[in-house]
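pasting for the record
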Amino acid sequence: MTAGVGVNTEDPAASDEAADLFRAVGRQLKAARERAGLGQRELGRRLGYSEEQISSLERGRRTPQPEFLRAADELLGCGGLLAVAVEDVERAKSRRRVRHPEWFRDYAELEGKAVELCYFANQAVPGLFQTEAYARAVFSNRQPYFDEETIEQRVTARLARQELLTRWPPPKVTAVVQEAVLRQSFGGRAVQLEQLRHLVQVGGLRHVEIQVMPMSSEEHAGMGGPFTLLELKDRPRMAYLEVQHVSRLITAPEEVRVLAAKYGSIRGQALSTHESSRLVEKLLGDL
């Protein structure tokens, strides 16, 4: 079954208001961090965030979560300056409409409600794990080419999806990523380094398991291409396919069952989470 067409319910004024607020909070965060003499990486380490996430928060590209604002306020000795913004941020989030492309909105809505997500990726790092720079490289290299405004909208929307990783309760997330994807210097060496570091950080979350399908594997059940499995509380398991700008949301039980069986085989053929983490660390050491 192909996903239906979403309805454009964007409120540009609400989106602009939220963006302005997030940028203001980001500037306050940066000022407090610099006053405390901490770098982005060190602040991220102390709060359980990656350097890339802190950078994006300071620029207003990611939505600051309440638990982050409260923890940062205490750590940086802000005396409530950041914590007091929680209510305004929550209000802005409720009014904001993320500008996903029309064909993607049905899936994005389901992804945001999922209690379990399973990704198999053999072409690029899953969008849920992409850094801002990696996502920008993805959209900048898309053909036919996007204009700069569209690129920025797509990057912002992709980062907004990642909020589900830090919400509570979070969904269970598993992913198998092809080793070749991690070895490719997509966007350049600096982007690759940042992306690999981010994968290590995200893979350390309790509810996230990332495995690598090694290039040396003699068995591979995923040669048919990438796919996603979604589990929601009140609906049967679904699957999502996206290739060459064509997307398809699958609800037919037999088709979903086949993909779920493939995913089980793929996970069994991939490196364990610990072996995968060591491989990513090795790749970082080699760069």
